[in-house]
Amino acid sequence: MTQSALSKRLLDEYAAVSDSLPTDVVSAERRQEAIQALAARGLPTTREENWRYTNLRPLERARFAPVAAAAAAAAPTVIPAGLDLPSTLTGFARFTFVDGTFAPELSSEHAQAGSTVRNLRRAPESSARRQGSTAGTRPLTAPSGCPEASLALLNEAFATDTALISVRGGTDAPQRVELVFVAVAGADVGASYPRIQVALDPDSRLILVERHVSAGSGASFVNSSVSVDIGRGAHLTHYRLQRAGARSAWLDTLTAVLAADGRYSLLTINTGGLSARSTTQVQMAGPGAELILSAAALGDRQQTQDHFALVEHIAPRARTDQTFRGIASGRARVAFNGKITVREAAAGTDSRQSLRGLLAGPAAEIDVRPQLEIYTDDVRCSHGATAGKLDDSMLFYLLSRGLSPEVAQRLLKWAFLEDVVSKIELPELRRQIEHDLAGQMADAASLKELL
Amino acid sequence: MSETENRLESLLARRYKHGFVTDIDADTVPPGLDEDVVRLISRKKGEPAFLTEWRLKALRHWLTMSEPHWSHTSYPPIDYQAISYYSAPKAKSDGPKSLDEVDPKLLETYEKLGVPLHERARLAGVAVDAVFDSVSVATTFKERLNEAGVVFCPFSEAVQRHPELLERYLGTVVPFTDNFFASLNSAVFSDGSFVHVPKGVRCPMELSTYFRINAAKTGQFERTLIIADEGAYVSYLEGCTAPMRDENQLHAAVVELVALEDAFIKYSTVQNWYPGDAEGKGGIYNFVTKRGECRGRNSHISWTQVETGSAITWKYPSCILRGDGSSGEFYSVATVNNRQQADTGTKMIHIGRDTRSTIISKGISAGHGQNTYRGLVKVLPSAHGARNFTQCDSLLMGGKCGAHTFPYVEVKNPSATVEHEASTSKISDDQLFYCLSRGISEEDAVNLIVSGFCKTVFKELPMEFAVEAQNLLAVSLEGAVG
Fold first, then answer.
1. Do A399 and A280 fall into the same domain?
2. Of the given ranges (A99-103, A161-165, B298-302), which has the lowest mean pLDDT?
3. Does A277 share its domain with A400?
4. Contact B409, B391 (CB under 8 A)
5. Within a domain: residue A302?
6. pTM reported for the whole predicted model
7. Residue A109 in this model has a pLDDT that exceeds 50
8. What is the count of structural domains for chain A?
9. Which of A46, A166, A200, B244 is the most buried (most CB within 10 A)?
């Protein structure tokens, strides 16, 4: 389908459902602006430098109208029986969204002093939640100038609900919140638009666990949008675990701004979806801000796992540490495109990128692009990237110790991911993730024994 | 006569008015580019039909293309219809009459580089009749090359003497459809060099355009083709360290290298064209397509470049590693000062088994200069055991310059190993302090550190070039310190 035809379909679909989209989540004007901007710009194509590794074919087939728009009129979202959600984490308040809309019956709120978490879409039984105004729903960082963030516009136009988290300072113990997004409906029914806004007041602390899972056919179209605002001296630890269904298209845009001495530890593990793409855009706006971005991706069969991470340093003495580990098996493509821009004012910037890809299948592909764009001299920036197979000498060592080739290979793959997994500071979560990862790797039984 | 016919006739007459199809023996065609201009160029050069047709095909393709803008550079739009695409070699009398008329800045540079007196006149384009010894030198060279069977001549001469080689190899590495500037070059290329080293021959000397037999200007659309037959060896030097006087602002050259089985081609470039003044006015746009293909088993192509000149440099000398066991190398030093912009790097395309490539790139940015390394390492599914190592370092001098690194690593074979590492920093205060405390002046200390930074590339240059390149670097970074 040509770009213009696609843009036209986008506008048509929007016009058909625009009246039913909740204005308390995003105002009608902003939706209109977003859809116009997106139609004018066009949906991304692989001809664009930062989309060339993405599988964008699902965009051509997807129905853009949200599932909720189709379902809301008829009946509330049906939660499938036997929905297998990840087990809860001790001390975390859980909020579950099904196809982008809040599902109170699957959520367990812990009242936590110092933070508020709410969804903006009125739940049928508790109209008290409804916001009279759209205060607090400031636009996500304007993506107009950034072609990489164009899918956030798609989310803005069609969003059905928002998870709004605001954390106040003054308590030492970090707030703990878990968000679970479940995609149920297939792409033929409609799309799902998870949407999160996180705001941390100065000196506040938050640990946020964000999960994306699928139920049902596993062939959903998910386009999520996350906006993070980290105040002066605030710390956010953010775990993003994407385990969408094996036939899903999962697209995601995250924008974050860090004020002075803010600290953002973002850890992403992408294993699901047939075509997955994450766009992460972080601006180091305050002096002394710190970003630790760790990402792991596993691709198997025909999967495409693409991650684009742009970090912009505009204030002095900020620090970025980027780590990526990706394994491509089968016929999968695993790509990581990490770009760090250091503007003139960002003297004393210290950045490090370590991107490594492992090829574990005869027709697999690894694409890594560590990019640096630097406009001042007082910096220390380095990057390293590798793509290749498992180290023969390590394999030999393990074989000489009597391990079978299969076990030795799995063990080394496991160790390869440890650079990212070991950064998970919550033991309970780490165990869960390790089990998940072991499950993703072929012949998981022997690995699970090792855990 | 009907009205339609009248109009038709007047249209025909108007077309004729431009006179491109006439046989007027013009030295320079009016600005603009169409099929008539291309035919004219081809006829002027007495080219065989296949070449004329090839040029026309290139032009037709070029007309369908739009200028690329993905490079990390900025410049005002170029009006391609305002350029004159053919001019006969200028008469020597057009140049300055003596060294006294030459820009003193240029002479100062020659002094610093230690260019011999008699060469200065030639480089500055002074209309001296007897240009030192070059005629006799060239003759001696020609004899030795003839003995070995090496063909080294201007491209236009090769068209007459070796059309069969041209027909076989021209455009096989860089097809006329390759990119905007290569297509333009294919349509209107003026002249260049042609080298053919026959089977098993080791070229007895370094071939250098500096001493090239055709003293005439090769113009802005240069085209070079080098073929190393089985087991042949050739080392080719392009450019020279001294700045050349040049009136053309846009340069769109194409270089094609073909290495057959066990052949070895080493291509070194020192580019020091006019970079424009300190405010970024003027200067050459150097938009070049350079590519070599290792066609045979165990063939080898090595690119070495020292880029200090030009307002904008946009070039990616690349290697297509098709033959099993073939290897490619890329060594580069790129310096930008004042308002210069450079977007340069390489592409290594691994196709054959056990192919190897090495990339060493050193970028130095000073003043308001913007220096970009852009490189692609691509391993195709057929390239079992492919191996690449890339190192690209950037040195920043001053808070207004930029250093950018855009590497692409794309691997489709699980037995391949690709490594890339890069660092960007300013000159270490510790190193500087150490030198200063030993009584070395700041300028010398910086030169020393920069030389050390570039050492791995300079050692790839032929000996006498390496020494000149170091001086050149010091000159081009002048004013960047302190």
1. no
2. A99-103
3. no
4. no
5. no
6. 0.84
7. yes
8. 2
9. A200
Mean pLDDT (chain A) is: 84
Q: Does B371 touch chain A (CB under 8 A)?
A: no
Domain boundary among A269, A286, A303: A286
Clarify whether residues A155 and A280 are in a common domain. Answer: yes
Predicted pLDDT at A324 = 96
- CA torsion sign for A80, A86, A90, A94 is negative
Q: Which residues of A touch B425 (CB under 8 A)?
A: 379-381
- Does residue A182 sit within a domain? yes
- SS3 label, residue B362: strand
Give every residue of chain B whose pLDDT is below 50, as ranges. Answer: 1, 8-26, 90-93, 125-137, 211-218, 482
CA-closest candidate to residue A244, choices A182, A187, A327: A182
Q: Contact, A198 vs A165, CB < 8 A?
A: yes
Complex-level ipTM: 0.81
pLDDT of residue B3: 56
Whether residue A265 sits in one domain with residue A118: yes
Paired tokens of A281: 């855009």
Q: Which domain holds residue A429?
A: 390-451
Residues B61 and B177: their CA atoms lie apart, in Å, by 7
Query: What pLDDT is attached to residue A246?
Result: 87
Domain assignment present for residue A333? The answer is: no
Rounded CA Rg of chain A: 21
Residue A134 confidence (pLDDT): 34
Q: Which of A263, A286, A309 is the last residue of a domain?
A: A286
Contact B404 A374 (CB under 8 A): yes
Q: Do A363 and B412 make contact, defined as CB atoms within 8 angstroms?
A: yes
Above 70 in pLDDT, residue A228?
yes
Contact check, Cβ <8 Å, A365/B412: yes
Question: Measured between alpha carbons, how far is residue A10 from residues A39, A58, A87 in Å?
Answer: 7, 14, 37
